[in-house]
Amino acid sequence: MSAASSTNTVASPSQQAPRVDNLPSAESAEMTSRDYYFDSYAHFGIHEEMLKDEVRTLTYRNSMYHNKHVFKDKIVLDVGSGTGILSMFAAKAGAKHVYGIECSSISEYSEKIIKSNHLDSVITIFKGKVEEVELPVEKVDIIISEWMGYCLFYESMLNTVIFARDKWLKPGGLMFPDRASLYVLAIEDRQFKDFKIHWWENVYGFDMTCIRNVAMKEPLVDVVDPKQVVTNSCLVKVTWGCLCPCPCGAGSGPCP
């Protein structure tokens, strides 16, 4: 679970971009943005956060372990393989061979992890961008990827996964996952509002309300107590409906 391509990605604002010297300003900005995204996935902290997300990680594991008949003797591609956790799940589910693509330097550690777990004969990791890597096989049976970002799309690798699907997935092949649903609901958190919003009204005796107005517009990723939920959930229609090759003959795009 990690980075695979620089296409349509947004780097985390908490990470500091690497310094690039001796480059024209425009080129320097481009290199900084590109390297900045991949470099953020080279640090173990972000992988620790994802691996400790048990709801997400166990859902991936169960989807493979409970469908071993689907993975048995199949060729699997892991897009954005990160530490190699999904690749190892696929190998344990019975895959004949798993190819992982990872652009950040965490790939070096994933190879060591895979070898330590005696799965190096089944899993091969390629370091590079999906758009540039060449696999030793023309097609794969299954593509797995943890492409989703915060609020589903933030920092997502959806376009990269679709590129991999169109290039390598054989007709009738499977995607894990192949669809997603996004819901919205309202919460009430008075303590949060006092600490993050109203606080700006009196900062050591000074009025900074103008920043409060900005803070109210910025999204926040956080854990919410179920008791704070005050409305029913509402399904937000996702414009793409299906990641699998469309059976209706519409080509590689989403199902109509």
UniProtKB/TrEMBL annotation:
Q: Mind telling me which InterPro entries this protein's record contains? A: Arg_MeTrfase (IPR025799), Methyltransf_25 (IPR041698), PRMT_dom (IPR055135), SAM-dependent_MTases_sf (IPR029063)
What keywords appear on the UniProt entry?
A: Methyltransferase, S-adenosyl-L-methionine, Transferase
What are the start and end residues of every segment in region (Disordered)?
1-27
One molecular function GO term is: protein-arginine omega-N asymmetric methyltransferase activity
**Domain Protein arginine N-methyltransferase: residue ranges:** 178-237
Q: Which GO terms describe its biological process?
A: methylation
CDD domains on file:
AdoMet_MTases (cd02440)
Identify one Gene Ontology CC term for this UniProt entry: plasma membrane
Q: Bias regions of kind Polar residues — which residues?
A: 1-17
Instruction: Tell me the ranges covered by the Methyltransferase domain, including all copies.
Output: 76-173
Q: What is this protein called?
A: Protein arginine methyltransferase 8
Q: Which organism is it from?
A: Oryzias sinensis (Chinese medaka)
